[in-house]
Design a protein that fits this description.
By secondary structure, the chain is α/β, with parallel strands linked by helices. It has one domain: TIM Barrel (Alpha-Beta Barrel), CATH 3.20.20.150. The strands form two sheets. The chain has an eight-stranded parallel β-barrel with strand order 1-2-3-4-5-6-7-10, surrounded by four helices. Strands 8-9 form a two-stranded antiparallel ribbon. β4, α4 and β5 form a beta-alpha-beta unit. The longest helix is centred in the N-terminal third of the chain and has 21 residues. The protein is globular and about 50 Å long.
Length: about 290
């Protein structure tokens, strides 16, 4: 099976235009910010454009995922900010639903209160997610993304991700997005121990709910807790370790999104083609 490798694309010209851009790049999937990535403000969006995006993706076999804005934090304890976060994510889900996307990627929360009690952080996160899910009845999922550990030591393990999901009122509305750089930076994955990580993912049921991959190499070593992406094969993870991960059976049909530094022309076309070629060779048993 040819993997659905793609990249993050801009919606500057609209949702349907973003899908067309992805196809021109040779992508089979793409990620987008459904609204201003620097704000939690709710957006009144063009539903016709979103429906055109959905139709185009269906016609060309493209998968898409959305990503919440940078200020999004599921573990905030300020009531006003928490309410803004709920409204913002509900808006993201509505846009993702209209565009036919799999779901909306949301980083696992970070609690930075005075006590920095992770249990309280989990409590806040579960409360916020329940507030969202109890108002949402669409097919688009919330996709919890693992943390790198930069800025807080929660959300770095598969156990945390699966446990939080299990405690939600409506866990069926939540899946996962695995970020390879975050997994490496957190120390969950060392690069040479993927079989052990994959086996744990199977036992915990993580793979059953995994819906997307953020494919990124890492500037910094495993366990550094420093989240800085590198291009594939040009970082501390390395090409072979990433290819080994991608050959895991449970990942075969998922959108695989590059969030790596864009080259001078702003296009990931060459990196997408390179990955598709390397995966094809690996699948045929060639080196």
């Amino acid at each position: 099976m040819r993997m659905k490798v793609g990249c993050h694309v801009s919606i500057r010209a609209g949702y349907a235009a973003a899908a067309r851009t992805a196809l021109r790049l040779g992508a089979r999937s793409f990620q987008y910010f459904p609204k201003n990535p620097r704000s939690l403000a709710v957006k009144t969006f063009d539903r016709r454009d979103a429906r055109l995006c959905q139709a185009f993706c269906r016609e060309h076999g493209l998968l898409s995922i959305a990503h919440t804005a940078y200020p999004t934090n599921l573990a905030v304890d300020d009531p006003d900010l928490a309410a803004k976060t709920v409204r913002s994510i509900l808006c993201d889900l509505a846009i993702a639903e209209a565009c036919g996307s799999v779901g909306v990627v949301v980083h696992f929360g970070q609690y930075k209160g005075e006590a920095a009690d992770p249990l309280y952080g989990y409590h806040l996160m579960i409360h916020t997610l329940n507030e969202i899910l109890n108002q949402w009845d669409g097919d688009a999922l919330i996709l919890l993304e693992n943390n790198a550990g930069q800025g807080g030591a929660i959300g770095m393990t598969l156990e945390e991700l699966t446990q939080v999901r299990s405690l939600l009122d409506r866990p069926e509305q939540v899946g996962f997005c695995l970020d390879t750089c975050h997994a490496f930076a957190s120390g969950m994955w060392r690069g040479d121990n993927w079989p052990e990580v994959a086996e744990k993912a199977r036992k915990l049921g993580y793979f059953d709910q995994l819906k997307a991959i953020h494919l990124n190499d890492s500037v910094y070593p495993s366990g550094s807790r420093r989240d800085r992406h590198a291009n594939i094969g040009r970082g501390a993870i390395g090409e072979e370790a990433l290819l080994t991960l991608l050959q895991t059976a449970e990942l075969a049909a998922l959108p695989v999104i590059l969030e790596t530094p864009a080259p001078a022309d702003g296009s990931h076309r060459e990196e997408i083609a390179f990955l598709q070629e390397r995966l094809a060779l690996a699948g045929s048993g060639q080196t």
